[in-house]
Amino acid sequence: MKKMMCLLSIAMLMSGCGNTSANDDELLVSTASSLTEVMKRMEQEFHKVEPDIELSFNYGSSSKLRSQIEQGAPTDLFLSASEKDMELLEKQQLVESESVRPFAGNRLVLASGKEFPETTNFATVLLNTEETIAVGEPDSVPLGAYTKQEFESQKLWKPLEGRLVYAKDARQVVTYVESGNADLGIIYSSDAVISREIVGILEVPWKMDSIIYPGAIVTASGNQQAASVFLDFVTGPKGQAILEQYGFLPADGETP
Length: 256
Fold this sequence. Notes:
Shape: globular
Strand content: 15-25%
Number of strands: 10
CATH class of the largest domain: Alpha Beta
CATH topology of the largest domain: D-Maltodextrin-Binding Protein, domain 2
Helix content: 40-55%
Number of helices: 11
């Protein structure tokens, strides 16, 4: 019975990871969901210089991906939207410390399917309507944690709680706004740049700590050389130019 339960646990873990069947011919990259669109372009350009390295992506919230790595899910490279999740893996020696490096930055915006009047005040939009606001789950999604941090700094979180719609990752917040399931949403500026449905954008006006995306090679990876090659591409001139085209900011110390 114990053996059967063990096999079932492994099967459930694998099914929860999406496409996670890493092998010698394929580099598996666990990637923050906010990087979904830019990674499609990154893969196309990477194949032009490294045609023998096949890429496979497993998208999700950074905390979920971190949890999968902690549970032993097969992963070669981790591209996170959260320095905190990367630091947790580094402390457990589950990623190679010398490989950790920032590769992008981002910021928060308020998004809508309708244009905002030019004189719109950010706090007024939030407080003086009954519209729903999509946000990431603050306990499990970096975007949600950043949002809660910002709102609490302005004493807005509790007044807005009854109107908040929670999403499982950054991509789902965008989907809620694009589909009209939420009137407003706090999303990354990079997602606002590439969305065709989102036409109203207001930058979050308060100063907060920079949002930095770090990448690192997973210690248990059997494909570390290929992982290093792709991480070099992402952090190199070509990769940085692609990230900039998709609305990402340069990471501290990095120049696209």
